Amino acid sequence: MQTNRFLPPVIALWLAAGNGPAAGTIRSGEPWFDTSGQRIHAHGGGLLRHAGVFYWHGEDRTRGGAAAVNCYASTNLVDWRFAGVALSRESLPRADGQRTFVERPKVIHNARTGKFVMWMHLEQPGYHYARAGVALADQPAGPFTFLHALRPITNDFNFPADAPNRQKELGGTFRDMNLFLDDDGRAYVFYASENNWTMYVVRLNEAFTGPETPTLEGRTWARILVRDMREAPAPFKHQGRYHLITSGCTGWQPNPARWHVADAPLGPWRTGGDPCVGPEAGLTFRAQSTFVFPLPGKPGEFLFLGDRWNPQDLPDSRYVWLPLRFDTNGAPRLEWVAEWRP
Ligand code: GAL
Q1: Considering the entire predicted model, what is its pTM?
Q2: Cα–Cα distance, 6 to 298 (Å, whole number)
Q3: Which of 211, 240, 294, 303 would be a feasible disulfide site paired with 152, CB 3.0-4.6 Å?
Q4: Regions in the chain scoring below 50 on pLDDT
Q5: Separation of 251 CA from ligand 1 center, angstroms?
């Protein structure tokens, strides 16, 4: 952000506050710095709007980073101020004597309880722990207090009790995830389950801290994109329909995105095509979906958040944030824009 020395001071200050054309731009794939000049670490992240402020929660991938989840705040979606460690590494549980870590944290506000509720993929090296973590806070930036780790649906596929590793892997595993808060106040968690073979959608209880119980397949939760091996779910709503963008399962390597659509969160879901168009569209512009955010005051316009992972140097992973719009057939389209402001 730069002030212009030829402008009257009041205007220059106004511009510097991020209100005018002097504010920064989104440049996907470039290193992105916060307002204090530090690299932004909020990977696999999500956006939340509360009281007119945007909050960006995501993974801290600095080497030896102190945070499990960082939070940044902004009023224009471009200039981000570091708002603190939302969830510290120390607050995470241990399991089998080993530490856990966080991927893809997402936060929603529960109007009933007044709490901010964070869900995350809680993991251990080897990716077999595969559980959801839930944490609560009174403020959007936190600090969040870890509540519990769980698998919302335990589905053992009749593996015998003496097959612990098979069950550990296949019993309702919870990996890439997202939250979706519908306009009727009900919330859902979308996650890659069954060892990533099948996506689950599970309606949350009133406090948003676990599944609605009793869990009834087809009524409170559903298996969707069955045996399709999709992950990185990014759900959103447009004109009464539910949309979902997913990636394939190729680890840190990019692959083609896919669009899915339904009339209700629990489905049935229909798979459409690849929403990306233009150069590198077949690799989701070398990125992987993490979130789709409706731009306030701009019906039909969304902000697509993706991660361009760098497996050789994960702390140097970049962000790919692009405008998402609907074409005349009602399908979402994502096009590469090198530099823009939402
Ligand atoms: C990806 C996933 C990332 C991370 C990575 C680890 O498939 O989307 O969030 O888990 O695998 O290899």
Answers
A1: 0.92
A2: 33
A3: 211
A4: 1-22
A5: 5
